[in-house]
Amino acid sequence: MSQPHPSSHSIPHAGGVIRVVQLTDTHLCKAQGGTLLGMDTDHSLQAVIDLVKAERPEIDLLLGTGDLSDQGAVEAYRRLQEYFAQLTDASCWLPGNHDDRANMELVANASLRLCREIRLGRWQVVMLDSQVPGEVGGELGSQELELLQAALGAAAEQGLFSLVCLHHQPVPIGCEWLDEQMVADAAEFFAILDRFPGVRGVLWGHVHQQVDRRHGAIQLMASPSTCVQFAPGSVGFKSDAMPPGYRWLDLHEDGSLHTGVSRVHGVAFTVDLDSGGYL
Ligand SMILES: [Fe+2]
């Protein structure tokens, strides 16, 4: 029986830069070594984790932004927990369209991993759920939008800057097939963000490719999957030969946000580039 999760948590931070790493769309299968479009998603995740270890030895917070499992298996979340623990115990997860929230909760059991508001130093990270059970596309809905508004209101009162995370993209990214799946109530989402000048970043997964844009003072960021990549600018489904990777974000005390994407090189991955489909 899973325990209720704390909705918010403060991670002690000595000050200075807050170092965040995002790992997204890990798509772990029920059994170790399972594949997505021919790629062993355990193998690719471990390769990305090895890269993070080499490049980002100090991490204050690790974010898993959905599609953490490929089919929602409890076994996948148990392995995910072990993989993430190679980097830090301070990890937070949110669900994507491939995830099973009940099984995520079963594994995360009253830990901080499904916490919705995390405070570190002068920053707050908000974790939203854009999953619509049974659907590929995303929508926040009134409950998540109310949670967002309350979290940003509390952050504003405390003079905190905010990074808002979700699984689906809240803006079109230029792939027609993926943009049919973008957050359905994105206009309402941005209407809330626009009322809070402390919001400095929106971060998501789902699109399996890097996107860096701006919405006023807000940086909009999508990131490569730790496994299969999708081709930018495609009309229909198209995978891409770009290697797996991750995003790092440095959150500064003055509210500035520096970020970048790093990809695995020197490791051979198999991916079916001619596949016509993907759920
Ligand atoms: Fe995905």
> Overall 3D geometry?
globular
Q: What value does the average pLDDT take?
A: 94
Estimate the strand proportion. 25-35%
Uncertain spans: none
* First-last Cα distance: 30 Å
Q: Could you state the order of secondary-structure elements as H and E?
A: EEEEHEHEHEEHEHHEEEEEEE
Structural class: alpha/beta
Largest sheet: 7 strands, mixed
Walk me through the structure:
Helices cover 23% and strands 25% of the residues. The protein is α/β, with parallel strands linked by helices and 279 residues long. A 7-stranded mixed β-sheet has the order 1-7-8-9-10-12-11, covered by helices on one side. A 5-stranded mixed β-sheet has the order 6-5-2-15-16, with helices on one face. A two-stranded antiparallel ribbon has the order 3-4. Helix 2 (74-85) crosses helix 3 and helix 4 (141-157) runs parallel beside helix 6 (186-193). It is globular, with a radius of gyration of 17 Å. The two termini are 30 Å apart. The relative contact order is 0.18. The model has no long low-confidence stretch (mean pLDDT 94). Bound molecules: fe (ii) ion. Residues 25, 27, 67, 96, 206, 208, 225 line the site of fe (ii) ion.
